[in-house]
């Protein structure tokens, strides 16, 4: 089964908490803070691979969670870093945000990597908080949470040439002749229920990839038939080969078919009109087909299209078609573009986390402070220890949280809710 779209949840590991510990060995009467830092959480990394062809595995497993970092230890020992989680996908996979549907990354080539969820940073142990005035800190820093998000994986085949046309015009047969592919072939509509890929060899070190794109009928751009399921695969191709039943053996008008299919392609994505298109009139072996084909050929040539007459049964005209496709490809730059929205992130920008976000607001007469930085600070604080409490208060002031609360109108003894914990405000 060919699976080309999947929704999954990814979660990076939490950073380990810093340790609170003191040196208590014999002959060390003045032993100070001795707690080590927590290890960083593991990240979730997505890597493209040539050995994987579909997104089938993601149909059965939907949650991917990296390892947490280990808590810090005594004797200033660092906690172990959480193991990264590597997820392999086919080359040509788009990574989209599950909520906005915007593209986060486009893994067009094999062995590309992208950190989709970065592991949380490990917290500092109490040894890092020792100063000349605070020689025995009884608090440590909590580890940061790792990133988590819902994402959509969407595969767009990396083929140089896309075969398009109505069902039963001979696309699969042409693919099987030109390449070593063995698609299912039969005389009824929608024989092809999934894209078929084949490598067409020209000579030593010369070849191209051809894909039989199924599901194109009138209304495909609106999802009729197999519709959007496979229209996306035509976007990656460098050249389109449009196959028509030149014999009109099934009672359809080849020219009418040609305009209908192109209309569906351009409705789906108007940029597809920029792709070079070769027209193939197939089934020329059927009696009367050659005579009927001249008017079709003339009209298409007048509109600037190259037209080839072939028979997938007798193989007449197949070699001329193959070498013409190859010569055209030599003039078209290899660039597997995506025509989706502009990338939301690119490169390392996609791996940055807004760890220091601080939100201070007044809502329904309640003063609220929240954000990942404040949450980490809150859970790092030992409210039974005066030094830890003083550190918490000083950090809130340095970060401008107190000033912002005052600007919003908070008064002495009023409540402020910090990450759902209620505190009394005072200066």
Automatic annotation (TrEMBL):
Domain of life assignment: Bacteria
GO biological process: ribosome biogenesis
Keywords: Cytoplasm, GTP-binding, Hydrolase, Magnesium, Metal-binding, Nucleotide-binding
Leader sequence residues: none
Membrane-spanning parts: none
Residues annotated for Mg(2+) binding in this entry: 172, 192
Domain OBG-type G as annotated: residue spans: 159-330
Keyword set includes Cytoplasm: yes
Subcellular localization: Cytoplasm
GO cellular component: cytoplasm
EC number: 3.6.5.-
UniProt xrefs under Gene3D superfamilies: GTP-binding protein OBG, C-terminal domain (3.30.300.350), GTP1/OBG domain (2.70.210.12), P-loop containing nucleotide triphosphate hydrolases (3.40.50.300)
InterPro entries with a match to the protein in the record: G_OBG, GTP-bd, GTP-bd_Obg/CgtA, GTP-bd_prot_GTP1/OBG_C_sf, GTP1-OBG_CS, GTP1_OBG_dom, GTP1_OBG_dom_sf, OBG_GTPase
Entry cofactors: Mg(2+)
Gene Ontology molecular function terms on file: GTP binding; GTPase activity; magnesium ion binding
Domain OCT: 350-427
The protein's role, per its UniProt record: An essential GTPase which binds GTP, GDP and possibly (p)ppGpp with moderate affinity, with high nucleotide exchange rates and a fairly low GTP hydrolysis rate. Plays a role in control of the cell cycle, stress response, ribosome biogenesis and in those bacteria that undergo differentiation, in morphogenesis control.
Subunit structure of this chain's protein: Monomer.
Family to which this protein belongs: Belongs to the TRAFAC class OBG-HflX-like GTPase superfamily. OBG GTPase family.
Name assigned to this protein: GTPase Obg
Organism: Acidilutibacter cellobiosedens
The organism's taxonomic lineage, starting at the top: Bacteria, Bacillati, Bacillota, Tissierellia, Tissierellales
């Amino acid at each position: 089964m060919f699976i080309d779209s999947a929704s999954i949840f990814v979660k990076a590991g939490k950073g380990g908490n810093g340790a609170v510990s003191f040196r208590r060995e014999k002959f060390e009467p003045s032993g100070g803070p001795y707690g080590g830092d927590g290890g960083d959480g593991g990240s979730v990394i997505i890597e493209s691979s040539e050995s994987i062809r579909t997104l089938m595995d993601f149909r059965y497993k939907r949650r991917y969670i990296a390892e947490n970092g280990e808590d810090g230890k005594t004797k200033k020992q660092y906690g172990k870093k959480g193991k990264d989680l590597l997820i392999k996908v086919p080359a040509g996979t788009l990574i989209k945000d599950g909520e906005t549907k915007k593209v986060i990354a486009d893994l067009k080539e094999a062995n590309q990597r992208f950190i989709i969820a970065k592991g949380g940073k490990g917290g500092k142990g109490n040894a890092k908080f020792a100063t000349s005035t605070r020689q025995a800190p009884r608090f440590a820093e909590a580890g940061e949470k790792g990133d988590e998000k819902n994402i959509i994986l969407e595969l767009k085949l990396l083929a140089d040439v896309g075969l398009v046309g109505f069902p039963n015009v001979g696309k699969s047969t042409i693919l099987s002749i030109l390449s070593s592919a063995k698609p299912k072939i039969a005389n009824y509509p929608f024989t092809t229920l999934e894209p078929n890929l084949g490598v067409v060899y020209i000579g030593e070190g010369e070849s191209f990839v051809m894909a039989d794109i199924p599901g194109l009928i009138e209304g495909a751009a609106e999802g009729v038939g197999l519709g959007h399921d496979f229209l996306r695969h035509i976007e990656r191709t460098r050249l389109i080969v449009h196959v028509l039943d030149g014999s009109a053996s099934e009672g359809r008008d080849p020219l009418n078919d040609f305009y209908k299919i192109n209309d569906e392609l351009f409705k789906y994505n108007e940029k597809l009109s920029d792709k070079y298109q070769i027209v193939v009139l197939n089934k020329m072996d059927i009696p009367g087909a050659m005579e009927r084909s001249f008017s079709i050929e003339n009209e298409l040539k007048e509109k600037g299209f190259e037209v080839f007459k072939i028979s997938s049964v007798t193989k007449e005209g197949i070699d001329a078609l193959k070498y013409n496709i190859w010569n055209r490809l030599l003039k078209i730059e290899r660039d597997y573009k995506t025509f989706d929205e502009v990338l939301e992130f690119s490169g390392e920008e996609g791996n940055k986390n807004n760890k220091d976000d601080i939100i201070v607001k007044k809502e329904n007469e309640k003063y609220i402070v929240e954000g990942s930085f404040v949450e980490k600070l809150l859970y790092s604080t030992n409210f039974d220890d005066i030094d830890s409490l003083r550190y918490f208060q000083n950090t809130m002031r340095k970060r401008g949280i107190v000033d912002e609360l005052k600007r919003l109108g908070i008064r002495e003894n009023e409540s402020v809710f910090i990450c759902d914990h209620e505190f009394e405000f005072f200066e």
